[in-house]
């Protein structure tokens, strides 16, 4: 059973309070909470776009498979060449094989962390089937975080039906966990269930917690409000998120601001400026990639289109 301190850390990570975890003081190395806390702290650095700092936290000589996997994910995120990324993916594949079998020298917790982090790297590499297999999608893995990541993958490939199946399967064995509620809110945000009311209510409830500061939640509620047509309130949430980020929005907040600015013709110049910033700072963001693909397709079709001659009146 995890301690109250570790439970709180887990909740903070689940709700995207990464800044708090980055600033967290690690417990004594002899404490049973030390390694799990170190993993969450390193993952928070990765989530904030600081993979080098995450890797630096992990002892180079560690034999713990969870720590090995978080260091590998940090290297994958920080790699700037395909060859380097492929080397890390192979390392994560080896770790995924190492945790299989009854004689694997790893705790259930270590195995769960390896599956989640390896699956995350595979998904980012575009290896969707491998990611889902690693996460145990379609099986009763009884690892709620693995379910959450599988749901996100299904939602990202426009398969909310399969995401819903994962959620319903998890409800058979999972307690009314905060992560389970977050999974349901994510599905509701994508499918528009109940007019986005459930997702909006969940984010609002969590933001009311005075001990939690999460720009991720603010952005999520801003998106929910935007989808509900509450543009003014959505922009307010997004502006507050930017303020808490020190005036420099992360990718998800900047993308949401771009969409919000594009609602209504009067603000098209603002939307163009924000999209240019998003393209320059986060060229791999799905919104940027999708736009560029559609732009290229339009140009391709435009070249093939022949304008017919103007009709002239007969004498």
Automatic annotation (TrEMBL):
Keyword Cytoplasm: yes
Family to which the UniProt record says this protein belongs: Belongs to the COPE family.
Keywords: Cytoplasm, Cytoplasmic vesicle, ER-Golgi transport, Golgi apparatus, Membrane, Protein transport, Transport
GO annotation, cellular component aspect: COPI vesicle coat; Golgi membrane
Species the sequence originates in: Dichomitus squalens
Role description: The coatomer is a cytosolic protein complex that binds to dilysine motifs and reversibly associates with Golgi non-clathrin-coated vesicles, which further mediate biosynthetic protein transport from the ER, via the Golgi up to the trans Golgi network. The coatomer complex is required for budding from Golgi membranes, and is essential for the retrograde Golgi-to-ER transport of dilysine-tagged proteins.
Molecular function terms, GO-annotated: structural molecule activity
InterPro entries recorded: Coatomer_esu (IPR006822), TPR-like_helical_dom_sf (IPR011990)
Signal peptide interval: none
UniProt keyword Transport, yes or no: yes
Record GO biological process: endoplasmic reticulum to Golgi vesicle-mediated transport; intra-Golgi vesicle-mediated transport; protein transport; retrograde vesicle-mediated transport, Golgi to endoplasmic reticulum
Protein name: Coatomer subunit epsilon
Membrane association type: Peripheral membrane protein
Subcellular location: Cytoplasmic vesicle, COPI-coated vesicle membrane; Golgi apparatus membrane
Upper lineage: Eukaryota, Fungi, Dikarya, Basidiomycota, Agaricomycotina
């Amino acid at each position: 059973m995890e301690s109250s301190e570790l439970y709180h850390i887990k909740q903070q990570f689940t709700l995207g309070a990464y800044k708090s975890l980055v600033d967290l003081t690690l417990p004594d190395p002899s404490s049973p909470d030390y390694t799990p806390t170190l993993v969450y702290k390193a993952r928070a650095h990765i989530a904030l776009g600081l993979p080098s700092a995450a890797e630096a936290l992990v002892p180079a000589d560690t034999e713990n498979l969870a720590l090995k996997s978080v260091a590998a994910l940090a290297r994958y995120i920080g790699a700037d060449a395909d060859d380097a990324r492929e080397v890390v993916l192979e390392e994560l594949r080896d770790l995924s094989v190492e945790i299989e079998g009854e004689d694997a020298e790893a705790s259930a917790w270590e195995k769960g962390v390896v599956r989640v982090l390896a699956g995350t790297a595979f998904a980012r590499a575009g290896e969707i089937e491998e990611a889902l297999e690693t996460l145990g999608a379609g099986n009763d893995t009884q690892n709620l975080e693995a379910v959450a990541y599988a749901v996100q993958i299904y939602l990202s490939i426009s398969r909310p039906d399969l995401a819903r199946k994962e959620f319903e399967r998890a409800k058979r064995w999972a307690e009314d966990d905060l992560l389970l509620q977050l999974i349901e809110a994510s599905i509701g945000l994508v499918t528009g269930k109940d007019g986005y009311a459930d997702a909006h209510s969940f984010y609002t409830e969590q933001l009311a917690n005075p001990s939690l500061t999460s720009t991720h939640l603010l952005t999520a509620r801003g998106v929910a409000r935007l989808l509900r047509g509450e543009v003014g309130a959505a922009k307010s949430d997004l502006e507050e998120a930017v303020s808490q980020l020190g005036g420099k929005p992360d990718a998800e907040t900047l993308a949401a601001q771009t969409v919000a600015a594009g609602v209504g013709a009067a603000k098209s110049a603002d939307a163009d400026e924000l999209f240019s910033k998003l393209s320059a700072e986060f060229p791999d963001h799905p919104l940027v990639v999708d736009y560029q693909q559609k732009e290229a397709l339009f140009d391709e079709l435009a070249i093939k289109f022949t304008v017919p001659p103007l009709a002239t009146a007969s004498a």
